[in-house]
Amino acid sequence: NAGVMQNPRHLVRRRGQEARLRCSPMKGHSHVYWYRQLPEEGLKFMVYLQKENIIDESGMPKERFSAEFPKEGPSILRIQQVVRGDSAAYFCASSPARAANYGYTFGSGTRLTVV
Amino acid sequence: GESVGLHLPTLSVQEGDNSIINCAYSNSASDYFIWYKQESGKGPQFIIDIRSNMDKRQGQRVTVLLNKTVKHLSLQIAATQPGDSAVYFCAEANDMRFGAGTRLTVKP
């Protein structure tokens, strides 16, 4: 039973390009959470999605960032016109229902480097 | 702001000693807490959880204590090993937010 799969593991983008990060939740999990982690810092909540719905995006920057979790396929975190400050590790977690009852399982992350 | 915070950013212990990592939370309605371990370059891994109807829960070499009166959690690691070196996070599952974490370094 595969865990939470994130790809790519490493992504390099030039300033101004777009970054697309993918997250496939564990089988049977319909809730997805995205977090950003800067070096030597904690996990910062970005967005919580269920299939086809954004439930909580209070942690998402207002501009350039968007997330989706379509009916079919992985969840996508999209960063448009990347800047150096977007360089970070982005982690996805999933749960079978709201994490309040089940907790989260994390993927291995995507390390984004903006040059 | 963050609902879960850590008292100490770093902790250094001798191999074989016991480690205690602390965590405070602010929401008295919080009812499910989880500890995660994050090794360098990896994603957080579940260690142990506890619900608010319990004061203590034990796993293999780890124990979590919950004090609801003062809204405090601790993670105890017995006979700490070099492989325990990592950053440890506590999370209040309802809130989806994590504290800054404590970096545990085990000295041989």
Notes on the protein architecture:
- With 115 residues, chain A is mainly β.
- Chain A has one helix at 99-102; strands spanning 5-7, 10-13, 19-24, 31-37, 43-50, 53-56, 65-68, 75-79, 88-95, 105-106, 110-114.
- In chain A, strand 7 (65-68) and strand 8 (75-79) form a beta hairpin.
- Chain A is globular.
- Chain B has no helices and 11 strands.
- In chain B, the strands form 2 sheets. In chain B, strands 2, 4, 5, 9, 10 and 11 form a 6-stranded mixed sheet that branches. In chain B, strands 1-3-8-7-6 form a 5-stranded antiparallel sheet, with no helix packed on it.
- In chain B, strand 6 (56-58) and strand 7 (62-67) form a beta hairpin.
- The chains are: A mainly beta (115), B mainly beta (108).
- Chains A and B meet through strand 5, helix 1 and strand 10 of A and strand 4, strand 5 and strand 10 of B.
How do the strands and helices of this protein lay out in sequence?
The complex is a heterodimer of chains A (115) and B (108).
Chain A: E1 5-7, E2 10-13, E3 19-24, E4 31-37, E5 43-50, E6 53-56, E7 65-68, E8 75-79, E9 88-95, H1 99-102, E10 105-106, E11 110-114
Chain B: E1 4-6, E2 10-14, E3 19-25, E4 32-38, E5 45-51, E6 56-58, E7 62-67, E8 72-77, E9 86-92, E10 97-98, E11 102-107
Parallel strand pairs in B: 2-11
Antiparallel strand pairs in B: 1-3, 3-8, 4-5, 4-9, 6-7, 7-8, 9-10, 9-11
List keywords for this structure.
heterodimer; A: 115 residues; mainly beta; seven-stranded mixed sheet; four-stranded antiparallel sheet; 11 strands; globular; B: 108 residues; six-stranded mixed sheet; five-stranded antiparallel sheet
The SS-based structural class of chain B is: mainly beta
Largest sheet of chain B: 6 strands, mixed
What is the CA-atom radius of gyration of chain A, in angstroms? 13 Å
Beta-strand percentage of chain B?
Answer: over 45%
Give the helix proportion of chain B (percent range).
Answer: under 10%
User: How far apart are the first and last residues' alpha carbons of chain A, in Å?
Assistant: 36 Å
Model regions low in confidence, pLDDT < 50 over at least 5 residues of chain A: none
By DSSP (H or I, 4+ residues per run), the number of helices of chain B equals 0
